[in-house]
Amino acid sequence: MRPWLALLCLAVASPLCAVELRIETRMYAGDEPDVISSSTTLFAGDVVYDFREDEGRVTIFRAGHAGAPGRFVLLDTARRVRTEIDTDRLTGAMEKLRQWAATQKDPFLRFTAEPHFEETFDRETGVLTMTSPHLTYRITTEPAKDASAEPQIKQFLDWFVQLHTLLEAGLPPGPRLEVNEALMRHSAIALEVQLAQHRDDETSLRAEHLVTWLLSKQDRNRIDESLDKMAEFREVSNVEFQTARQALR
């Protein structure tokens, strides 16, 4: 999987409101009909659960409060192990990555460190377009049904794209963070994201999001099972967790 896939993936200091939301995501390469990755993200109260269907990985996120960092717990269901990563580590790693990219000769890498887009939003159609010489996003959206949920959704998406960057050794997440900011500004939820990178050797990517503002009984069962696994699985270091996963690919 290309490192810049994170630029497409999933779309606050005080306690956030409780959100109940389900987002199914399917990723495609260009116009190809085959799914290249899929996931289901469940917002349940102040905790978010992300199920990566094609990798057997579950990611659980709880935001930090009162100055404490947020925390990700990653579960490897095949090896029955877990590891934890806090948001302070992500902040430090992303800043180092941004500084590195800003000093590179490649204009695209420098852009990812300090991205700037021309933005248009058509309220009638719900289409958000963000263009630059390097990347173009065309995003089909719908209005958020619960405006009070928007800060929590954006918070998770911001941290999640940084986690994905860390795990996949990806490019700086600045472009996707700009997209998240634009969606929040327009009180919009992404239904489809089309990403074109303006290089001859790169394939465009497309993500489809099925959004449901309600959790099913099956969703709640998956959450309960994940909490049981979090208690049962052996805890390992970040390095052991990631090295073993990479060896299986």
Automatic annotation (TrEMBL):
The keyword Signal applies. Keywords: Signal. The keyword Signal applies. It comes from the Bacteria. Residues 1-18 form the signal peptide. This is Uncharacterized protein. It comes from Pirellulimonas nuda. The lineage of its organism: Bacteria, Pseudomonadati, Planctomycetota, Planctomycetia, Pirellulales.
